[in-house]
Amino acid sequence: MRKYVIMGVQGSGKGTQAKMLREDLDLAHISVGDIFRWHVRQHTKIGAQVKRAMAAGELVGDDLVEEVVRRRLGIHDWNYGFIIDGFPRNGRQAEFFMESYDIDAVIHLELPDDEVRRRVLSRRLCPNCGMDYNLIADRPEVEGRCDICGHGLITRADDTPEALEARLTDYHEKTRPVLELFRRKEVVHDVDGRPPVDEVQSAIRKTLGLSGYRADD
Ligand SMILES: [Zn+2]
């Protein structure tokens, strides 16, 4: 059984990397963001709490994140292990998590802030059909138009430089103590998040001692 944590700033590609590992290793991919989005869509009590926090411009509280993760892991559908994304959020949670679940490795995707800005601020969205674009990696065929439905593309409301700076500051403040704790336990694997997706995946597998990743599989 493999128990991994994946950490990385927004735009580092951690969701994509986690999914690639999940598919190959039969892991449960536990994404706190995905769980919250599900609750919002299903209009659950947790969903209402998440919406309140977002409307107030706040992050969802650490306690609520912890509760959601505990419940999710309590389902025990992870026979081959799990890869968790978006947790732990503070040193206390990290300590608890290490002790309770005996984490094998923490994959830390490193991406310089400048590269985060470049990636995040080039994101565009079609408000009509929901298709995502990126002016660096996934350009639309016609500038400013959705390839699928032809609607004009927009920037997400929270992808402004100011909002991004606030998220970056928050990320570094929150992540530092968690990473420090994991480093003391010698479970952190730092991986450069700048190369193309396949190369990052290969580097992750190499450092974790897994069999190689072949893009043509
Ligand atoms: Zn569209």
From TrEMBL:
The keyword Zinc applies. Residues 123-158 form the Adenylate kinase active site lid domain. It is found in: Cytoplasm. Keywords: ATP-binding, Cytoplasm, Kinase, Metal-binding, Nucleotide biosynthesis, Nucleotide-binding, Transferase, Zinc. Residues 122-159 are annotated as: LID. Zn(2+) binds at C126, C129, C146, C149. Signal peptide: none annotated. It catalyses: AMP + ATP = 2 ADP. One of its GO terms (molecular function) is kinase activity. ATP binds at G11, S12, G13, K14, G15, T16, R123, P195. Pfam families: ADK, ADK_lid. It comes from the Bacteria. CDD domains: ADK. Residues 31-60 are annotated as: NMP. The keyword Cytoplasm applies. AMP binds at R37, E58, L59, V60, G86, F87, P88, R89, Q93, R156, R167. Its EC number is 2.7.4.3. Pathway: Purine metabolism; AMP biosynthesis via salvage pathway; AMP from ADP: step 1/1. Monomer. Consists of three domains, a large central CORE domain and two small peripheral domains, NMPbind and LID, which undergo movements during catalysis. The LID domain closes over the site of phosphoryl transfer upon ATP binding. Assembling and dissambling the active center during each catalytic cycle provides an effective means to prevent ATP hydrolysis. Some bacteria have evolved a zinc-coordinating structure that stabilizes the LID domain. Catalyzes the reversible transfer of the terminal phosphate group between ATP and AMP. Plays an important role in cellular energy homeostasis and in adenine nucleotide metabolism. NCBIfam families: adk (TIGR01351). HAMAP family: Adenylate_kinase_Adk. This is Adenylate kinase. It comes from Actinoplanes hulinensis.
